[in-house]
Amino acid sequence: MDKIWFYTKGDGEKYGPYTDEELVKLIKQGILSGEDYIWMTELDEWILIQDSIYSFYLEK
Pick from 5, 8, 24, 41: most CB atoms within 10 A? Predict the structure, then answer.
């Protein structure tokens, strides 16, 4: 089963749910940056995209 992700851009709003594929698409489109946070139910706290496995998809 796909992981279900949420994100926040530091504005206090939470967005989601998104699948892995949708999250990658948002990163590749530049909608999400390394300084945005992601979270799923298996995590204790929000993590920066730049500190996650999804940092691979950030523009270099």
Answer: 5
Over the stretch 11-37, which tens digit does the pLDDT of each residue have? 889 999 999 999 999 999 999 999 999
How is residue 7 written in tokens? Answer: 């994100």
- As separate numbers, helices (DSSP H) first and strands (DSSP E) second, the chain gives 1, 4
Domain range annotation of the chain: 1-32
Nearest to 34 by CA among 18, 52, 16: 52
pLDDT tens digits along 43-52: 999 999 999 9
Is 52 in contact with 58 (CB distance < 8 Å)? no
